[in-house]
Amino acid sequence: MPSRSTRPATPLDDDDYPAYTMGRAADMLGTTPAFLRSLGEHRLITPLRSEGGHRRYSRYQLRIAARARELVDAGTAVEAACRIIVLEDQLEEAQRINEQLRARAR
What we know:
Helix content: 55-70%
Strand order of the largest sheet: 1-3-2
Number of strands: 3
Number of domains: 1
InterPro entries: DNA-bd_dom_put_sf (IPR009061), MerR-type_HTH_dom (IPR000551)
GO biological process, one term: regulation of DNA-templated transcription
Oligomer: single chain
Domain HTH merR-type: 19-87
GO molecular function: DNA binding
Organism: Streptomyces rochei (Streptomyces parvullus)
Strand content: 5-15%
CATH architecture: Orthogonal Bundle
């Protein structure tokens, strides 16, 4: 997934801060913990773990999971939805790099 170059001042402002438990994340997305686990099994998102071993999700991960849910709700298999999201991300990154190279060539 895309990297971020600047870090926020506090964890509350950090999209990558693992603030949400699995149950809370599932509630926010209107899905089940099993769905979130399946996204991890397909390596779309890898939640951090609390000291007790519980999965914790960031806002950034929840946005990715929400996109996966949109695809699944539209009839796409979970595995295919995960692959689509990875490919979309790779395309976006390639387009960004291409634009940078074009800008340098001008």
